[in-house]
Design a protein that fits this description.
single chain, 259 residues, alpha/beta, UDP N-Acetylglucosamine Acyltransferase, domain 1, 2 domains, 7 helices, 15 strands, 14% strand
Length: 259
């Protein structure tokens, strides 16, 4: 028990720059208190003392503001930062070295008792403040869930999901950024320099439309030059008056709207 406690304190001091001493972590971090009480509740639950497990869990909720069902499985070196409003369901599984911020819900969608209803977090997953992870799927090792996201689908290892509903925005293209963050010690809050994929799609369509207008304007300019050489009557225009020989499509302004 004391080895687990030392591990928990060490991982908090490693990941939270506000933690100044072991004594401060031991006495002032509700996430640590919630995990210690959960171990007692989980031991009672798995031993068949279901009421006692729920009672210890409810006491931990009253004391810390963090609700962890005694049936949930929590790995080693898990850090619940701040923690107020965190809810972890009965069949949820949290892997080693995960980080969970305030307001996170690991919830279920099924009402069938005895089934796997809650998510599984792999090793080193970060779930940012206010995120809702709902369903019996797996969030892969080292994945990130952005703040206030609503995640309803599996996340590959090392990826980042953001938005409502959450979409995958970090895969191989951001591997270098994640490696740089790892060298600095820790990548907190599941942030990403990439844009939301819907925003990226809109920007792609805007840029494509801008390219088309540019090509059309060039074509009309070429036609106008050719017609100037071949027209017989100077008074007869060979290019329609409403032909777009200049570009008017403001792609930059539209891109700013979808940032």
């Amino acid at each position: 028990m004391f080895d687990r406690l030392r591990e928990d304190i060490a991982c908090i001091r490693e990941r939270d720059p506000a933690a100044r001493s072991t004594w401060e972590v031991l006495t002032c971090y509700p996430g640590l208190h919630a995990l210690v009480l959960h171990r007692w509740a989980h031991a009672a639950w798995t031993s068949g003392f279901l009421w006692l497990g729920r009672f210890v869990s409810n006491f931990g909720r009253w004391l810390t503001g963090i609700e962890i069902h005694p049936g949930a499985t929590i790995g080693r070196r898990v850090f619940i930062d701040h923690g107020m409003g965190v809810v972890i369901g009965e069949t949820a599984e949290v892997g080693d070295e995960c980080t969970i911020y305030q307001g996170v819900t690991l919830g279920g969608t099924s009402l069938v008792p005895g089934t796997k209803r809650h998510p599984t977090l792999g090793r080193g997953v970060i779930v940012s403040a206010g995120a809702k992870v709902v369903g019996s799927f797996t969030v892969g090792d080292g994945a990130r869930v952005g703040a206030n996201s609503v995640l309803l689908q599996p996340v590959p290892p090392g990826a980042t999901a953001v938005g409502i509903p959450a979409r995958i925005v970090v895969k191989d293209k951001d591997a270098q950024r994640e490696q740089a963050a790892a060298k600095m010690g820790f990548s907190a809050y599941g942030v990403t320099n990439g844009d939301d994929p819907v925003s990226l799609a809109m920007k792609g369509l805007i840029d494509n439309a801008s390219t088309h207008e540019h090509q059309i304007a060039l074509l009309w300019q070429a036609i106008e030059k050719l017609s100037a050489r071949t027209r017989e009557l100077p008074s007869e225009p060979c290019v329609p008056q409403d032909a777009h020989t200049t570009e008017t499509f403001d792609a930059a302004a539209l891109n700013r709207l979808v940032k």
